[in-house]
Amino acid sequence: MAINRHYNDYAPGSAKGPQPMTPFTDEELDYFEQLILAKKKEAMDEIERLQKYLSQEREESSNDTAYSYHMADAGTDTMHLENVYIMVERQKTLIGYLDRALDRIKNKTYGICRVTGSPISKERLEAIPHTEISVAAKMQEQRR
């Protein structure tokens, strides 16, 4: 029988039950914190790069006249810019997930599956350091 718990059930001061403690040592938590901070920096750098690109594209498009530009080209450019905006939003979402992981490290709840309440494997956290669920919980989620 699966235990359905939500991570917020373990928030400090929660009346819903004891706060699970991380299965990792302080040294391991420091390792994950550095890994997450590096990923956050990569995401922030990517946002900056994409925003510079968008700025350049806006500048260049304002220099084009209506007669020098074909409608199909304009549609393609618009679609491409929409994709760039989507990539920026994805990076911002990732940063939010990374910030939440940093909060869990600080609260010593990092590495606890929010679905099962069991520890998440170190290998999974190294691959996806912001994950909140174990492989077993992810597989269970996909079967639904």
Question: Can you lay out the helices and strands and say which pair or pack?
Answer:
Blueprint: H1 26-63, H2 71-106, H3 122-127, H4 135-143
Describe the structure using short key phrases.
Four Helix Bundle (Hemerythrin (Met), subunit A), 4 helices, 144 residues, mainly alpha
Shape: elongated
CATH topology: Four Helix Bundle (Hemerythrin (Met), subunit A)
Instruction: Give the radius of gyration.
Output: 21 Å
What is the CATH class designation? Mainly Alpha
* CATH architecture classification: Up-down Bundle
- How many β-strands, per DSSP? 0
Q: Structural class given helices, strands, pairing?
A: mainly alpha
Helix content: 55-70%
Report low-confidence residues grouped into runs of 5 or more.
1-15
Largest sheet: none
The mean pLDDT is: 83
Written description of the protein model:
This protein has a single domain (7-12, 19-63, 73-143), classed as DksA, coiled-coil domain (Four Helix Bundle (Hemerythrin (Met), subunit A), Up-down Bundle). The chain is built from four helices and no strands. It starts with 25 loop residues before the first helix and ends with a helix. The protein is elongated, with a radius of gyration of 21 Å. The protein has 144 residues and is mostly helical. The protein has helices at 26-63, 71-106, 122-127, 135-143.
